[in-house]
Amino acid sequence: MSATWLLARRNLRGNRFRLLASVGGVALALSLTLALDAIYAGVANQLTTYIDEAGADVWVSQAGVRNLHMVASWLPEDVVGEVRGVDGVAGVTPILYATDTIGAGDERAVAYVIGLPAGAAMGGPWDVVEGSNTPGPGEVIVDAGFAERAGVSIGDSVSVLGGEARVVGLSRGTASLVNSVAFVSFDDFAAMRGGPPLVSFVLVSITPGADPDAVAAAVERQVPGVTAQSSAAFSVEERQLVMDMSAEVISIMNVVGFVVGLAVVALTVYVATLARRREYGALKALGARNRYLYGVVLSQAFLSVAIGFVVGLAFTGLLGLAVAQTSLNLRLALTAASIVKVGIVAAIIAGLAAILPIRQIAGLDPAIVFRKGAAT
Q1: CA dihedral of 214, 216, 219, 221, whole degrees rounded to 10
Q2: DSSP collapsed to 3 states, 331-366
Q3: Residue 197, number of CB atoms within 10 A of its CB
Q4: 145 neighbors 180 (Cβ within 8 angstroms)
Q5: Residue 376, exposed/middle/buried by CB under 10 A (0-12, 13-18, 19+)?
Q6: CB under 8 Å to 89, separation ≥6 — which residues?
Q7: What is the DSSP track for 109-128?
Q8: At what angle do helices 355-362 and 336-353 cross, to 10 degrees?
Q9: 265 with 353: CB under 8 angstroms?
Q10: What pTM, to 2 d.p., does this model score?
Q11: Alpha carbon distance 91, 205 (integer Å)
Q12: Contacts (Cβ under 8 Å, ≥6 apart) of 141
């Protein structure tokens, strides 16, 4: 280990209170950035859970509709047969879809309401913890978390799509911070909606060896008035919508975390440098070059931020575990991209934090070590 790193470590360890304040401030600031990124990624992942778990290789929607959130898609019923006839299509499941409010007692929740045909091969609940996994006439499957909050169980009634339905199943993993997913029968949904026979989406499974993107392109060529996307592309579109809606807020909070971290580290390194002016003066008097002293200050800054980054990363991980044990419909997803981004931010903080102390050293008079009453 170089002499600059050894001296930097000694300086940091020389005042444990200052070290704890520095590491704690940096950890808090970087934890804020990491936690916001993790919340954002977790919400984005949850919003695409239904798409990811529906079992479809390709999603077919009304022309121009490329996501689920805050949209309406209506297709003539004849489209189902046309999609079925496209090369590469192994099976199709039409579903009805609307964003609605489900309620029981005083509890209300926004939900994606899915109308499933009898014997649906795709689009149904993927983890039913109690009851049936197929809704029949007058029946509904709701998220277990919503049922717990509303105090309902199998056999109780909830309001959905302007009517009442009896709970026959409780699903898990179908809720997010924004909404949950509820499943009713296709015929009940159609009757409640009224009007001509329509479907919202056609879920497609493809033949073994077929390429989802190629099949989607074939569907668009052969079936007029539709947009077809692979499940992966559909999920990306949904996530992008979340980014567009929340990126500005996340960016502002990340900037706040950056500024707080910079201020804490800059102040700490600055004070630590001033506290050792006599020591640095002695080193300069003994022939130490400014480059060596600059290295010590930079090393102090990088060590402080590196320790704070590790602590912040650990804290965010523990926060994610704690949140997962609560009844909140929230899961923190700490991504590699977020860790790399915050690591780069931490390095920038360290570099900027050392600027003021370096300027102090550059103008340091070596005679200060001999001056009576010099700062210690």
Answers
A1: -70
A2: CCCCCHHHHHHHHHHHHHHHHHHCHHHHHHHHCCCH
A3: 8
A4: yes
A5: exposed
A6: 58, 83, 204, 205, 206, 207, 215, 219
A7: EEEEEEEE-TT-SSSS-S-E
A8: 20
A9: yes
A10: 0.71
A11: 5
A12: 125, 128, 131, 132, 133, 135, 167, 168, 169, 170, 171, 182, 183, 184
In three-state secondary structure terms, 98 is: strand
- What are the tokens at 302? 């990088």
Q: Which amino acid is at 11?
A: N
Would you write out the chain's pLDDT as a tens digit for each of its 376 residues? Answer: 566 666 666 666 666 666 676 677 778 777 877 887 787 777 777 778 899 999 999 999 999 999 888 788 999 999 999 999 999 999 999 999 999 999 998 888 889 999 999 989 999 999 999 999 999 999 999 999 899 888 999 999 999 998 999 999 999 888 876 788 999 999 999 998 887 889 999 999 999 999 999 999 999 999 999 999 999 999 988 888 776 766 667 667 767 776 776 677 677 667 766 666 677 777 777 777 777 777 777 787 788 788 888 888 888 888 878 776 666 666 777 788 888 888 887 788 777 777 777 767 766 666 655 564 444 4
Do residues 203 and 95 lie in contact, with contact meaning Cβ atoms separated by under 8 Å? yes
